[in-house]
């Protein structure tokens, strides 16, 4: 089992296996690395013939995948077969997927993928609490497992620096660190959207620290404060209005959800810390809250919820995050339902 950075290093050295399993919660990271692998393996001129995709969540048999793997590539040394959102990989507990019953035969085929084919499967964790199962660990001897954990610390800063470099935009190291500290969920798709926003805001000049404060401390922190405040005061119309304003202003729904979830998590932790006897100073240090005013606002919000209500709100955020991964889901409606349910 390797991490995504080892995978990237191997790819640069052209050390490519013929069978991969990507797993993690951040689909952006998974898709980005699969894209790099495909680009490295097959020519774009013949991609339509040599890059075959299957939706793992709707596959009823693995036979079409095997047939695609066995078929020789067209005008190329390699072909790529992708099984995305391979839910049957994680059906350890309930075994609801038809393919979960065929897992032993699938596992046997993974040992014998032909040399002309690169078979890729990826499995998304249902939420942040999911861990790699024994079932997945058991595949490590048959294929290359790439674990796509959330990027943190210097690795996150280096990745975000790449986003700025791609846009030929200068940002100082210290300011880059401040920017990363405001990107709380480490969702690279969301972070790249925020990089784009900041680059547009500073068009024609270098990024300054004040730009980061103006764009993100107002648009993320204060707006989400207002949204959660409206929820805590049971003002559904106000909350829905703020949601629509955020969407109209260009904020991605995944970003709004991650910020709401973060805010509820902070309120939950404040309530827990105080219940266990922490002082205000200790709670602020543990939560890395610098402003006493900001803490007082969040303390006031936390008092308007019971402990169970906050736990339920965090759980509903995680459930909504899972629903948003479905292509058939109306994202705005799911967010509106989340707001209505958290005010109940």
From TrEMBL:
Keywords: DNA replication, DNA-directed DNA polymerase, Nucleotidyltransferase, Transferase. One of its GO terms (biological process) is DNA-templated DNA replication. It catalyses: DNA(n) + a 2'-deoxyribonucleoside 5'-triphosphate = DNA(n+1) + diphosphate. InterPro entries: DNA_pol3_clamp-load_cplx_C, DNA_pol3_delta-like_C, DNA_pol3_delta_N, DNA_polIII_delta, P-loop_NTPase. Its EC number is 2.7.7.7. GO terms for cellular component: DNA polymerase III complex. Belongs to the DNA polymerase HolA subunit family. This is DNA polymerase III subunit delta. It comes from Clostridium kluyveri (strain ATCC 8527 / DSM 555 / NBRC 12016 / NCIMB 10680 / K1).
């Amino acid at each position: 089992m390797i991490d995504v950075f080892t995978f990237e290093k191997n790819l640069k050295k052209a050390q490519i296996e013929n069978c991969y399993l990507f797993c993690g919660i951040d689909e952006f990271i998974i898709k980005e690395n699969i894209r790099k692998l495909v680009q490295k393996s097959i020519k774009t001129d013949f991609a339509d013939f040599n890059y075959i995709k299957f939706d793992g969540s709707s596959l009823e048999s693995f036979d079409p995948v095997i047939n695609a793997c066995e078929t020789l590539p067209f005008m190329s040394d390699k072909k790529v077969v992708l099984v995305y959102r391979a839910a049957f990989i994680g059906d350890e507990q309930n075994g609801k997927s038809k393919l979960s019953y065929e897992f032993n035969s699938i596992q046997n085929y993974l040992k014998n993928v032909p040399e002309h084919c690169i078979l890729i499967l990826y499995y998304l964790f249902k939420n942040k609490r999911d861990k790699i199962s024994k079932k997945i660990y058991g595949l490590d001897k048959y294929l290359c497992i790439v674990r796509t954990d959330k990027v943190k610390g210097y690795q996150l800063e280096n990745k975000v620096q790449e986003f700025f470099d791609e846009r030929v935009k200068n940002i100082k190291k210290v300011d880059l660190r401040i920017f990363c500290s405001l990107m709380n969920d480490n969702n690279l798709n969301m972070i790249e959207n925020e990089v784009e926003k900041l680059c547009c805001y500073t068009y024609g000049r270098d990024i300054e620290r004040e730009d980061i404060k103006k764009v993100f401390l107002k648009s993320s922190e204060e707006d989400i404060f207002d949204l959660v405040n409206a929820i805590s005061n049971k003002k559904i119309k106000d909350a829905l209005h703020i949601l629509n304003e955020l969407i109209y202003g260009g904020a991605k729904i995944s970003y709004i959800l991650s910020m709401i979830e973060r805010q509820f998590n902070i309120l939950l932790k404040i309530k827990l810390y105080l219940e266990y006897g922490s002082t205000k100073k200790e709670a602020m240090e543990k939560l890395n809250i610098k402003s006493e005013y900001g803490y007082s606002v969040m303390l006031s919000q936390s008092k308007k919820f019971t402990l169970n209500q906050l736990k339920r709100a965090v759980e509903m955020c995680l459930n909504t995050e899972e629903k948003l991964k479905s292509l058939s889901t109306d994202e705005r409606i799911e967010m509106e339902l989340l707001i209505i349910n958290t005010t109940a």
